[in-house]
Amino acid sequence: MSQTIATPPTVRLDSDVIGKPINRTDGPAKVSGAAKYAAEFGVTGPLWYGYIVSSPVAKGKITKIHADEVLAIPGVQQVFSHENVPSFAWFDRAYKDDVAPGGSPFRPLHEPEIMFNQQPVALVVAETFELARYAASVLRIEYDVEKHNTDLDSVIGEAFDAPKGKTGFVPPPKPKGDMNKAFAEAPHKVAGEYIHRAQHHNPMEMFATTVDWLGDGKKMKIYDKTQGAPNVQQYIAKIFGLSTNEARVISKFTGGGFGSGLRPQYQVFLAVMAALELEHSVRVVMTRTQMFSFGHRPHTLQKLRIASDDQGHIQALEHKALAETSQFENATETVVNWTGILYNSPNTNFDYQLSKIDVYTPLDMRAPGAATGNFASESAIDEMSYKAGKDPLDFRLLNYTYSDPTENKPFTSKRLDDCYHEGAARFGWDQRNPEPRSMRDEKGMLVGWGVAAGCWDASMQKAAAKAVLSADGHLTVNSATNDQGAGTYVIMTQMAAQTLGLPMKQVTFNLGDTNMPAAPVQGGSWTANSVGAAVKDACQEVGKKLLKLAQKMDDSPLAGADFEDVQFVDGHIRANEDITRSVAIEDILAASGEEKIEADGKAGPNPINQLKYSMHSHNAVFVEVKVDEDLGTIHVTRVVNAVAAGRIMNPKTARSQVLGGTVWGLSMAMMEETYLNNELGRYMNHNYAEYHIPVNADIHKIDVIFVEEEDDIASPIGVKGVGEIGMLGVAAAIANAVYHATGKRVRELPLTSDKLL
Amino acid sequence: MNSFTLTQATAADEAVRDLTSHDGAAYLGGGTNLVDLMKYNLERPTHLTSLGLLPLTDITSLPDGGLRLGALATNADTAWHPEVEKRYPLLSQTILAGATPQLRNVATNGGNLNQRTRCYYFYDLATPCNKREPGTGCSALTGPNRVCGVLGTSESCIATQPSDMCVALAALEAVVRVQGPDGERTIQFDDYHRLPGDHPEKDNTLKPGELVVSIDLPEEGYADHFTYLKLRDRSSYAFALVSVAVGLKMSGNTIEKARFALGGVAHKPWRDQEAEKMLEGQTASPDLFRQVAAKVFAEAKGYGEGSLHNSFKIELGKRAIVRALKQATEMSQVVNPNVFLNSNP
User: What sections of the sequence does the record tag as coiled-coil (chain B) (predicted)?
Assistant: First the structure.
């Protein structure tokens, strides 16, 4: 018997856009080349070019700079070095940016001392780029070379507890119970040491600054490659004693950042300094080699010990990490804490230390700290599951925690369990033979299936936005945030459109200009949440003004309604109770006679909720590898990445973020490593040919699942952010799959073929 | 990059005259390596003799049954040429295992032979390197040297010749035809590149002013039994850790003739004629292949342990030879195993 089911009438709401897979509003500009990056902006009047000269030694002192020889070349305008750079701000605090770690920030061209290899030692400014490059190549600089030490292994004995001082750094959780006793007495246990060396961000776009000297006092437009224009502006203004009016920083598009653009890089200092000294427009672009001259994911050594009882319950959990930092700053990451957040154990010990070597200060790189700690802990948990005789997924579920054991707080939401279940179902985990080396494909290749979990902060920062609704009905929203490719442009447009019930095409979102309301650097997965809430707030304020104007209209159907009583849908304000009581926004604007309606919005963390709750995003990653054991080659043939990160504003851009994160995790697992030559104190594979990241042929099927969470506590807009979470779990799941395929546990990244021979 | 003058030559003899009449001159083919080196300030020619207009782009059959590859034919045009694909599939696949389509579309055959090493230290002016600046020392001997060689090295240099194409040309026993101030001559491929010895600054045996005009392939192309196995750190756009080009003539399961060469392990494409002879007249078997592999690497020297250092290449190289010979005899897998073709949509 057939049954007819009435199809509900399709209601198309152009303004109902949050949660929809909408294309990037900035996409056409990017693919057509219309989108301008820092080194592409034109200036008023002629432009001069600065070329950076880098130190060939890691430690020592400059004794002589033969600038006169280079200044004699026609077209060379100036050679800047410590010999002629005027003194600017005196105190360290002027050089501290919003996300600087503790210590004394590097001051370019201030001192003759060399503290790290490739330290910028001079800037040659000339009338063309080619001339500046040539002149830089013949600039003779003499050094007194001193003995350096870049070998982390040699300074393990000098490790010290990582000090506080950097925004966002959470010291290791306090120990619980008696770790050593519990470990000694437990029937099943694992202990292992894990290593990855330095990794460099390598965004496609080089760090670059174009300073447009406006010829009006010290006024400049500073086009900079950064993840936060306001952070750069504060840095520049403090150092050079400029007003925010004089130092306007603009960053409309960022060709990848991954953390490298969190701190102002030295080219912006050099370009602004040269422009001020020469009173001329100047552009400075780093070379690819120089992209290896500053921050990086630090070389980190880790030790884990885990023990369980016969049922597979974790009884002892210890995670220790030792990371490199520079001689002048204490770069800190949250490395070990995540292990304690994911798994409960009555006995724990956590430790995180630093040792100083002669390199530049490490810098947050995608899922900083967590990516490092997660690889080690999820590898060790996997190993523990085998020791306890449990399926790796069952073991994780058995030790699942519904509150944060490190802070004894409930989570605002945590659907990691559903990530496990939905991911496992999509992957076909139930078909897995638990025995290592038991699965092969039709060609005889060893097949391995691995799983790992990940955890990241759902964090919120202070942010502001301004919304302007013009008489023609177009809404423009501005915030000085950033879009390093994440999709900020489109999701903020969605947020504004949805809040005021306007179609996307009637809304423009602008970012990346310090003349706009301030926003934090784009990092930590907090942009969607923080800026999104500020945009919503600004639009709601405009909405309130609109409602008041609507109520002033003759015979207003909305008379007497409070803001909470109405909704903004399809260009109308409607009463919730009776949607036929409706006024078109264009009619309100026309009746009001106003040229525009504008409002400021802001958002920030809720301190009470932060005290009461633990706020995190989670994911579960399932991986299939195929291994050619004779040759040691590994292919990651399938990945399922199931993510619980609150509300997903745009499943298309969010999926792209998780795809990118998955590829990043694969890259970390399989390829990325900066080769440090300790004798020379220098990174050696400083180009795209030798610092390997995946090509298309390395990437196969990646399936992204979003397990949505309703969470109004972590965020007023229910968003947790997806910038980092997608890469977590991936490296460990690959290593775990390799173990399942081969029976070989590799604890040192990357998983190059030589490690399986 | 320094300033330079440039001449567009239209014939080989004119190019030779132009180059030899300028101090500090260099030939410019596709420029995919030279221009990079100039940007890095590693090469500083004051004059370039551009070869772009020379009529050396043809690929033509030779009366002896061989095939002539014009020195200025691009790598892409060579790899996709019907005669090359049909008669010398080993060469075609080897070319396609190198670089990227963009590079292969511009890079020339002559230039491929003359590309410089990719040793990290050669590419970095801040470091000692005997190949770049004779007498300064070799940083690779003790530093990270994953990209460096284990066969035929010297205490002066352990750099490798980075070409894929040349590995096949060595196995195919190509002949390089050159033109110089004293006229034309031919160089057997084995003699074209040299070992570093005490003069690592010299990559090859070209005399001053000599210009590659063609690469001549003998008639035998091993189209029935061949393989190019390239092992590298990612599936494309990476230089070989170890690569093996094999050409066999088989009769049943018996190897009648064997030629093979290795890339990524030496200052030149590495051939071992004694090892080749060990295969000839023998029945193909894993044991035989292992003996051959052991012979090839008997004199190998690794420079340090761990993944940053290259000793692992000795074991990897042996396994690569065994696998490549197996693939060539069985013609079981003639695609690069690094490029994994999965069945997922």
Answer: none
